[in-house]
Design a protein that fits this description.
Largest sheet: none
Structural class: mainly alpha
Number of strands: 0
Order of helices and strands: HHHH
Radius of gyration: 17 Å
Shape: flat
Helix content: 55-70%
Length: about 110
């Protein structure tokens, strides 16, 4: 067996909360990526975001304060809009799937 490039990359075992593996699988299929590529993509997005107050993604953020990413060039504006659009789409999708799931439970 040859050493493929992916075999030489660092590996890390992660325990997911219930249901998250299915969410990752669905998102990966929707985006045409492997589950690993989907996880790496989403992690990289969190590192690419600048938080002015040093909060972490997922922390509660004061939306009325100055805690947003620094967007001071047209390119950063485009990236911010793309990221917000993706995040909104994914959030809306999860909410709608949850509503469908809740309706099925009744």
């Amino acid at each position: 067996m040859s050493d493929a490039p992916s075999r030489k990359q660092e590996q890390f075992i992660v325990r997911f909360p219930d249901g998250m593996r299915d969410q990752i699988k669905a998102a990966a299929e929707e985006n045409g990526r492997s589950m690993n590529a989907e996880i790496v993509f989403r992690l990289q997005r969190t590192f690419d975001t600048i938080y002015l107050d040093n909060s972490a993604p997922g922390d509660e953020v004061d939306v009325d304060g100055d805690l947003f990413e620094v967007v001071d060039t047209p390119d950063k504006v485009d990236r911010a809009v793309e990221r917000m659009t993706r995040d909104f789409k994914e959030s809306l999708r999860r909410s709608m799937l949850q509503m469908i799931s809740d309706d099925d439970d009744k």
